[in-house]
Structure formats: structure tokens, C-alpha cells
Specification:
The chain has helices at 12-21, 23-36, 62-74, 88-95, and strands spanning 2-10, 40-46, 53-59, 78-85. By secondary structure, the chain is an alpha+beta fold. The protein has a single domain (2-87), classed as 2-Layer Sandwich (Alpha-Beta Plaits). A four-stranded antiparallel β-sheet has the order 2-3-1-4. A hairpin with a 6-residue loop joins strand 2 and strand 3.
Length: 110
């Protein structure tokens, strides 16, 4: 399972729905959506500021995370941003991976 951070900002319509439905019911609805994708919800927090909701979820893959993001954005009640979260182990693996790369403008050879 891969870990993702979803950050949501409610639209006016979404805020009205939240007022009608309650924060607890929205949390349960999001958790059910994540479960339907084969995942689990690790954390769900409301916040002050530009971002209204932070969710950390474990999902099987990027396709599942994209499906979640597409469906929630398409509903028009929130703007959702998705971030893939990496563990220190995953970073360690990445730093040990051999990569052949030529930066733009750095032409080598004759």
C-alpha cells in the first residue's frame, strides 16, 4: 500500500453540505470511499486556513488515488490536491538507485 495526503478546500456548496451533514458524517463518508478503493484512512483533520481538510490514506496504488481525486473533484463540493507520501526507507532506496541522466543543455561527446 502507498500512503497519500489529500488536502481539500470546500466550495460554497461543499460548506453548505458540511453545515447540513456534520463533520463526523463527512469523515465517515470519506472513509467509506477510501475503503471502496481497497484502502484505509489513517487520519482525518479539519483545519483553519486555505485547506479545510487533511486526510492521510493508504491506497493500493496511484490509480486508486487518482480515482479518489477525480471523483471528489468532479463532485464540485471541494478542490482536492493529492500528494504521494514517502517513507524514509523509500527515500533510501531511491538514493541507492542508479540513474543515467543528462541535464538539459549539457551535451557530452564530440
Amino acid at each position: 500500500m502507498q500512503k497519500y495526503l489529500f488536502q481539500a478546500s470546500y466550495t460554497d456548496t461543499g460548506l453548505k453540505g458540511l453545515l447540513d451533514e456534520s463533520g463526523t458524517h463527512r469523515k465517515q463518508a470519506v472513509e467509506q470511499t477510501i475503503k471502496s478503493l481497497g484502502g484505509t484512512m489513517e487520519a482525518f483533520y479539519y483545519a483553519f486556513g486555505e485547506t479545510d481538510v487533511f486526510v492521510i490514506a493508504n491506497l493500493p496504488d496511484n490509480v486508486s488515488a487518482t480515482a479518489f481525486s477525480l471523483v471528489t473533484n468532479a463532485a464540485g463540493t471541494a478542490k482536492v490536491r493529492t500528494t504521494v507520501l514517502l517513507t524514509p526507507d523509500q527515500i533510501d532506496q531511491a538514493t541507492k538507485t542508479e540513474v543515467i541522466y543528462r541535464p538539459p543543455g549539457m551535451i557530452t561527446g564530440p
